[in-house]
Design brief:
This protein is an all-alpha fold. It contains 2 helices and no strands. Pfam families: DNA_binding_1 (PF01035).
Amino acid sequence: MANAVNPISIIVPCHRVIAAKGKLSGYSGGLDKKRDLLPLEAEHTRVDLLQAAFS
């Protein structure tokens, strides 16, 4: 419910929430916007998978 009323969704990243089976689900900006935001962020993100796995 909190994500539905998030007025600053690009700063508090509720668009990164996915459904239990890994599918895209509800987003106040619409699924098309969510689908656009995720790869855009991925282009500028580096994750050390080994470090993340043990955090």
